Amino acid sequence: MRMTQLFVQTLRDDPADAEVPSHKLLVRAGYVRRVAPGIYTWLPLGLRVLNKIETIVREEMDAIGGQEMRFPALLPKEPYEATDRWEEYGPNLFRVKDRRGADMLLGPTHEEMFTLAVKDLYSSYKDLPARLYQIQTKYRDEARPRAGILRGREFIMKDSYSFDIDDAGLDAAYQAHREAYVRIFDRLGFEYVIVKADSGAMGGSASEEFLAVSPTGEDTFVRSAGGYAANVEAVTTPVPEAINFATFDAAVVVDTPGTPTIESLVEVLNASHARDDRPWEAKDTLKNVLVMLVHPDGRREPLAIGVPGDREVDEKRLETQVAPAEVDAFTEADFAANPVLVKGYIGPEVLGESRASGIRYLLDPRVVSGTVWATGANVQGKHVLNLTAGRDFEADGLIEAAEVRAGDPAPDGSGPLELARGIEMGHIFQLGRKYADRLGLQVLNENGSLTTVTMGSYGVGVSRAVGVIVESSHDDAGIVWPRSVSPFDVHLVVAGKAPEMFEAAERIVADLESAGLSVLFDDRPKVSPGVKFKDAELIGVPTIVVVGKNISDGIVEVKDRKSGDRRDVALSDATAEILGEVRG
RNA sequence: CGGGAUGUAGCGCAGUUUGGUAGCGCACCCGCUUUGGGAGCGGGGGGUCGGGGGUUCGAAUCCCUCCAUCCCGACCA
Fold first, then answer.
1. Is the CB of A459 under 7 A from strand B?
2. Complex ipTM more than 0.85, yes or no
3. Positions 134-193 in A, CB within 7 angstroms of strand B
4. Which of A86, A94, A196, A323 could staple A201 via S-S, CB 3.0–4.6 A?
5. Domain CATH number, residue A104
6. What residues have CB less than 8 Å from A77, skipping those under 6 apart?
7. Is the CB of A557 under 7 A from strand B?
């Protein structure tokens, strides 16, 4: 491809609406253009990268026996009504009406369609297992699209689905996908972690996410030096040993006027009820937080959560735990309706389904039997000290809703946790029989009776990968593509106007192309070398060949985009040298 | 949905406070010069100043209103 022919226009300035590096660079270098919020056009350069990523994904999916097919993006609503997702997906679902007023949707993901397709064609256990996939444009009407192609409303995803007669088959399909994903992401060339994910309300069992490690990521995950990794929503807290409280002091109520917050409480306790051993700290207090759960049927249920006072309730972790219910704030009106709750002084003695409030009370796992707390006495301006779990109060159960902090111990004992950010690039999980049940996907088993098929669902963000790779591989001058996805193998720059330069360049291009390489040839005759070098660095092809002033000595230059290393090569050896470089 | 900001040429921006002929840089076109790090000089094309309404002799500028976009948060396989 010649630069004089390529449909591209590089920009000197960052676009004003771009924030993250990948967005700025992909627009500046002429890979994509924004059409509407969260909706992008793939220009020729961008499409070449996208196609390369698709090819890698296809190869690895085919290698585990996946069969590619393609469903429409425009779908009828009925299958999604059958699984309740027409409602559950909420405003994120792109809904459209046809001319007769029939409801339709732009597919956000295709579990229903794949399930129905298998139901349509198969009816015997002998037909299984099946592994089917598609690479398709998906639509989600995100409330706030951002970061360019990293989070669009239209995006390309590879989604595959496994269909098995039994759990062993599902496990095998899950493992096969896991290994395929490792190969895919290794080939795409960015750093990633595999984290335990929460399968949430989907009802599945095993679930893991592949997160690209990136400070611009929207997902927080934890990892330990010993190899534990999990999405922050899925982190579990190691439960401490119970403590024998036989000799502990009895609980005592003390006056703590004007202490509705943990901070003010600690201050007053240190001033007027000092401990013998050390000052009071927030972690000595038990904070009881009230929220309102909204169940899918609209029922509202108050819930009390007890956490150590030095920790906040993490709303995402809480929502994950209570799904499919949603979490709403506990309002002044709710307090008014529960007069036994004294705001700012709520204590465990009124919490619990069998206590005065009748409100379900769940505790952080750290609050084991024998731990001693300073906490609300359910009277304005009073707290209770030495309140001992297991002796003075019980809860209705445990909940993992407290925030996770760097330094917390990993649940498997592999060391302290570190928090980091990631971009979700792949998600594999065992769906089980939820969709097959709802849509009636059953086959006859060996005994001639109907058995519900068990399914897995596995996704890869294909268009997102373009952005992720740029996030992980760029410098001040531009993009640095890994060879596996670079739009071209070689970027050849003619730095000058002498006819012999162009003649030499033409020969190198012809030789490389006949050897099977793709070459971006900057043949612009009136553009200065500086501009061509800047463009080459911006566009990011990993090998840059410069034919310039040294051509009179029969020398061309081969530059490595990533390291910046350059070396002179004899024109006669150029093709062989470049081939060696590109093919590694 | 809440908070903040911004809408002026393809892109990046000034001009708005204090109303008076629509500007700069990049990009684009023509000519000459230039060719190893985003060239120089000269000439040129391109704008319903986000939309609508109002005030005024006169509005990019003041007022009202609507819309759009971006950022933070909420939300999000």
1. yes
2. yes
3. 138, 140, 142-147, 151, 155, 157
4. A323
5. 3.30.930.10
6. A86, A95, A102, A103, A104, A105
7. yes
Interatomic CA distance for residues A418 and A543, integer angstroms? 37
Query: How far is residue A183's CA from residue A193's CA, in Å, rounded to a whole number?
Result: 13
Q: Which of A407, A440, A468 is the last residue of a domain?
A: A468
Number of domains in chain A: 3
Query: Is position A474 within any domain?
Result: no
Residues A254-295: tens digit of each pLDDT = 888 887 788 888 887 788 888 888 888 888 888 888 888 777
Q: CATH code at A503?
A: 3.40.50.800
Residue A145 pLDDT more than 90? no
CA of A6 to C1' of B28 (A): 17
Residue A189 (CA) to nucleotide B13 (C1'), in angstroms, measures 38
Asked whether residue A145 falls in the same domain as residue A63, the answer is yes
Q: CB-based burial of residue A477 (10 Å sphere; 0-12 exposed, 13-18 middle, 19+ buried)?
A: middle
**What is the extent of the structural domain holding A505?**
488-583
Q: How far is the CA of A484 from the C1' of B39 (A)?
A: 36
Question: What pLDDT does residue A314 have?
Answer: 82
Per-residue pLDDT at A205: 64
Q: For residues A168 and A134, state if they share a domain.
A: yes
Question: Does residue A201 have a pLDDT over 50?
Answer: no
Residue A232's nearest CA partner among A155, A312, A149, A310 is A312
CA of A144, C1' of B75: distance in angstroms = 8
Q: Can you tell me which residue has the tokens 């704030």? A: A329
